[in-house]
């Protein structure tokens, strides 16, 4: 288990939109659980602005080198497809020794 904090500040949205964000957060957390290592912790944040619904999953594990092909596995492809089906995007940020963050956003309106 990866100890995780959550910060959720959103109103309700279409069921399909909520499901897309939920499953992307779950996929990112599963990746953290597999790769962050013992002693790591995670955080989930979901918020909205006037124009978009945002989510972010981060961990303080060892991170990885994006230039070496990290961030292109099936889980990341699934998240990109899920967000893309609503016109949204994801971004993967990671550096060896500095943890990993996966962010997504869906346009509102």
Taken as a percent bin, the fraction of beta residues is: 25-35%
- Average per-residue pLDDT, rounded, comes to 93
Spatial order of the strands in the main sheet? 1-2-3-5-4
Order of helices and strands: EHEEHEE
Number of DSSP helical runs:
2
Question: Ranges with pLDDT <50 over ≥5 residues?
Answer: none
Biggest sheet character? 5 strands, mixed
What would your notes on this structure say?
29% of the residues lie in helices and 32% in strands. By secondary structure, the chain is an alpha+beta fold. A 5-stranded mixed sheet has the order 1-2-3-5-4, with helices on one face.
Tell me briefly what this model is.
29% of the residues lie in helices and 32% in strands. By secondary structure, it is of the alpha+beta class. The radius of gyration is 14 Å and the shape is globular.
């Amino acid at each position: 288990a990866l100890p995780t904090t959550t910060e959720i500040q959103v109103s309700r949205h279409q069921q399909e939109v909520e499901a897309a964000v939920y499953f992307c957060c779950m996929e990112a957390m599963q990746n953290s659980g597999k790769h962050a290592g013992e002693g790591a912790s995670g955080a989930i944040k979901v918020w909205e602005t006037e124009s978009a619904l945002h989510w972010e999953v981060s961990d303080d594990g060892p991170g990885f080198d994006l230039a070496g092909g990290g961030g292109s596995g099936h889980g990341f492809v699934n998240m990109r497809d899920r967000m893309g089906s609503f016109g949204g995007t994801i971004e993967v940020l990671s550096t060896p020794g500095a943890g990993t963050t996966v962010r997504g956003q869906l346009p509102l309106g």
